[in-house]
Amino acid sequence: MRAVLLGPPGAGKGTQAARLAERFEVPAISTGDIFRANVGQGTELGLKAKEYMDAGLLVPDSVTNAMVRDRLKQDDVGGGFLLDGYPRTVDQAGELDAMLAEMKLSLDVVLEITADADEVTKRLLNRAELEGRADDTEPVIRQRLEVYAESTAPLTSFYRDRGILAQVDGIGEIDEVTSRLVEAVNSRSS
Ligand code: ADP
To answer: Which residue's alpha carbon is nearest to atom 3 within ligand 1?
Structure first.
């Protein structure tokens, strides 16, 4: 399976990505997690990304695309992958196509987890209390949702036009949402 997981911040991409990765035996590749790990380790990449992340803005495409390109060259992606948080702009989607084309590969499915702004804001504020992520404060959450609406939401029609989009309702129990996603993957590959 070569798949992309789309959805607004707080839709549950990270949680569901881990479950789908296990189920379909592919690595989950989260650009947000890679950036956070680099920030934590104080690498050059982390230093470049931190100010954007803390402000709720996208890290520049040049930085993000290069990082994903490197990651997709690693051995564990031979049997497929699940990208979480990438692409996030139409330009990144074009870049991903180019990377895959070089590898003579293409995407099988784009899974979009849907959830309205009120629900995701509530979840993110709750997560702020539990995990204390630097970008889970109210003004930064609002900014991330704006960036999503403006830059990432257009990917829905981009992938729908390609015929590989599957939308899944992200409201409900975690297990229930996982079942919907698994179902969406299976109904495409059968
Ligand atoms: P969320 O989806 O909850 O906003 P992520 O962990 O996916 O959280 O991303 C956190 C931050 O990392 C983003 O706000 C952004 O600054 C940066 N980031 C992650 N993925 C990308 C990407 N594909 N392009 C640019 N920036 C990204």
So the answer is: 9
Tokens encoding 150? 């403006």
3-class DSSP assignment, residue 93: helix
pLDDT value for 190: 56
Top mutation candidate among 88, 113, 133 for ligand 1, by most atoms within 8 Å of CB: 88
Strands 81-84 and 28-30: parallel
CA pseudo-torsion sign 135, 165, 63, 40: positive
Cβ 174 vs Cβ 12: under 8 Å: yes
Confidence category of residue 134, pLDDT binned at 50, 70, 90: confident
How do residues 57-105 score in pLDDT, each as one tens digit? Answer: 999 999 999 999 999 999 999 899 999 999 999 999 999 999 999 999 9
Check if the beta carbon of residue 68 is closer than 8 Å to that of residue 99: yes
